[in-house]
Amino acid sequence: EAQVTQNPRYLITVTGKKLTVTCSQNMNHEYMSWYRQDPGLGLRQIYYSMNVEVTDKGDVPEGYKVSRKEKRNFPLILESPSPNQTSLYFCASSLSPYRVGMNTEAFFGQGTRLTVV
Amino acid sequence: EDKVVQSPLSLVVHEGDTVTLNCSYEVTNFRSLLWYKQEKKAPTFLFMLTSSGIEKKSGRLSSILDKKELFSILNITATQTGDSAVYLCAVTSGATNKLIFGTGTLLAVQP
């Protein structure tokens, strides 16, 4: 089954304790991205990756890191989490937006609800 | 600055009503516009639109894009309580390769 898998689904942590949220897709997609969703602000892109070893900042990258060492995995790293990073996080993958004429819709993981106290 | 604006922010209708959701956008080098439905979990894909004037249809849902006026609408006919969700509009920028989302329209369908 084609899917995007995020782990964990729920996480409560303390300020300053490094954490990683994993994301894996089995569709051989080039494009992967991370979003956070907050009430009234919608989905905002944190980082995205066009392919292996290619990552770029989205609209709200501060406080986050990512890596793309393999095509299927795109972990999100919070080196020193703070309470303002409490949010619902989604990982998504799609074919490259340069694939003209093909369906390049994003497939989303089930979300990670992170609380930083 | 690239942006996507959806309206209304929320609406409440009764089963059987028809609703129209709006999405307007400003984006550098438009590539595509996508509609998603989000219930209590991850957004699920509805439509992708790249050409003006061509209606996409799936059951009671349909959508159309106007690239001259920079907007899209999502229509839902004969609404059902299962249509209650947040509907998200997103636009892909060919200049930045970003997918930019609007804040969504919360639709509540009452029995």
Helix content of chain A: under 10%
Q: Rg of chain B from C-alpha positions?
A: 14 Å
Q: How do the helices and strands follow one another from N- to C-terminus of chain B?
A: EEEEEEEEEEE
Low-confidence stretches of chain A: none
Strand content of chain B: over 45%
| Total number of helices of chain B | 0
The total count of strands of chain B amounts to 11
Q: What is the straight-line distance between the termini of chain B?
A: 41 Å
Shape of chain A: globular
Range of strand content of chain A: over 45%
- This entry's quaternary arrangement is heterodimer
Question: Which pair of protein chains has the largest interface, and what are the residue counts?
Answer: A-B, 26 and 21 residues
Task: Give the H and E element order of chain A.
Answer: EEEEEEEEEEE
What is the mean pLDDT of chain A? 92
Helix content of chain B: under 10%
Secondary-structure-based class of chain A equals mainly beta
Features:
heterodimer, A: 117 residues, mainly beta, 7-stranded mixed β-sheet, 4-stranded antiparallel β-sheet, B: 111 residues, 6-stranded mixed β-sheet, 5-stranded antiparallel β-sheet, 11 strands, 59% strand, globular
